[in-house]
Amino acid sequence: MTDRIRLVEITDANRDAVIAVRVRPDQEQFVASVERSFQHAEQYPDAKPWYRAVYAGDEPVGFVMLSWNLVPKPGFRGPYFLWRLLVGAEHQGRGYGTAILDEVVRLLRADGAEELLTSCVPDDGTPEPFYRGYGFVPTGEVDEDGEIILKLDLRSRP
């Protein structure tokens, strides 16, 4: 069971602690680091990146980044796209991933969103089973990197 998580804005005061949150080495091929996520956000401002540190108590345990309410265009899916979700290696298996998605879904619904898209590599060790267990379903699309596109219908999620 997790403590209640909070999505916290990243500032100069917490940036280094958030960057230090890392997945297990065997997961690094599937999930880019927080630092790489910051680089992607800076590289692709048209993707309308929105990101937050995930805290349990006073400790950063994860990171989440979305494209927030963008107009879909080539190379950018949306309007809401889960770009990055990671939970630190030592915090995995405690329900934080589900708690993060629950909070993201709550925020997206408040913004009027009806669906959330994400993508993942179709391979052993991928987070696909986690996403499917949460309610995401494949759309039948594959992106330019060979990742399958998954969709969560926010209207049917409890």
Describe it for me?
The longest helix is centred in the middle third of the chain and has 15 residues, at 96-110. The protein is globular, with a radius of gyration of 15 Å. Strand 6 (137-142) and strand 7 form a beta hairpin. The model has no long low-confidence stretch (mean pLDDT 92). The relative contact order is 0.16. The protein has 4 helices and 7 strands. The chain has a domain at 5-113: 3-Layer(aba) Sandwich (Aminopeptidase), CATH 3.40.630. It is 23% helix and 30% strand. Strands 1-2-3-4-5-7-6 form a 7-stranded mixed sheet, sandwiched between helices. It has 158 residues and is of the alpha+beta class. This is N-acetyltransferase. Residues 5-155 form the N-acetyltransferase domain.
Descriptive key words:
about 160 residues; alpha+beta; Aminopeptidase; seven-stranded mixed beta sheet; 7 strands; about 25% helix; about 30% strand
CATH superfamily of the domain at 5-113: Gcn5-related N-acetyltransferase (GNAT)
Question: How many angstroms does the end-to-end distance come to?
Answer: 19 Å
State the major sheet. Answer: 7 strands, mixed
- Strand ordering within the main sheet: 1-2-3-4-5-7-6
Protein name: N-acetyltransferase
InterPro entries: Acyl_CoA_acyltransferase, GNAT_dom, Sper_AcTfrase_N
Organism: Lentzea flava
Domain N-acetyltransferase: 5-155
Nutshell version of this structure?
This protein is an alpha+beta fold and 158 residues long. Helix content is 23%, strand content 30%.
Q: What is the fold's blueprint, element by element?
A:
Elements: E1 5-8, H1 15-19, H2 34-43, E2 49-56, E3 59-68, E4 80-87, H3 96-110, E5 115-120, H4 128-134, E6 137-142, E7 148-153
Parallel strand pairs: 4-5
Antiparallel strand pairs: 1-2, 2-3, 3-4, 5-7, 6-7
